[in-house]
Amino acid sequence: MKIPGLRHSAGQVGGIVFFGRMLDKIRLHAQGKLPADYNRGFGLDGRVCRFLHVEYAKLVERVLAGGSDDEILAWCFAHGRKPNEEEIFIFNAFLTKRGWNDDTSEELAEMKRKRGFASRDDIQTCFDFHKADEEED
After folding, report:
1. For residues 70 and 13, what is the distance between their CA atoms, to the nearest angstrom?
2. What is the DSSP string of the chain?
3. Can you give the pLDDT at residue 81?
4. pLDDT, tens digit, for every residue of 98-137?
5. Per-residue pLDDT, 136
6. Using CB atoms within 10 A of its CB, is residue 57 exposed (0-12), middle (13-18) or buried (19+)?
7. How many whole angstroms separate alpha carbon 80 and alpha carbon 20?
């Protein structure tokens, strides 16, 4: 389902994939515009928070206090950690492949089944799923 204001998983902030989508989900949820079945604070959100060493609840507070995506990322770096280019490269490669022959493959298959995408062999990662799901009207 298309959700206005929710960017794709592969979009980057400060070179980090999914970070902007996580911020969008926080903002949209606060506005009552995010469907209840969207994960918040765990799954890929949790992976990003653990990568940056920030607590999701504290990140939510910071996002709702306002500021640009870059300002919020700078806050994460100051209150968690600032990964180097190589770490970001490896993390992005890892995150973009989630669901493809890994421990989340079964979860992805179930998500595809629930959305009517079970026969879609082009959907092999969580990022592929997000893209396909959001192209549906």
Report:
1. 7
2. ---TT---TT-EETTEETHHHHHHHHHHHHTT-S-TTS--SSTHHHHHHHHHT--HHHHHHHHHT---HHHHHHHHHHHS----HHHHHHHHHHHHTTTSSSTTHHHHHHHHHHTT-TT-TT--SHHHHHHHHHH--
3. 98
4. 999 999 999 999 999 999 999 999 999 999 999 998 886 5
5. 63
6. exposed
7. 17
Per-residue CA distances from 16 to 33, 35, 64, 89, 125 (Å): 24, 24, 20, 8, 17
The predicted-structure confidence for 68-99, as pLDDT tens digits, reads as follows 999 999 999 999 999 999 999 999 999 999 99
Q: Which value, to the nearest 10 degrees, does the dihedral of the CA atoms of residues 23, 28, 29, 30 take?
A: 90
pLDDT attached to residue 25: 97
CA–CA distances in Å: residue 33 to residues 4, 29, 95, 126: 9, 6, 25, 21
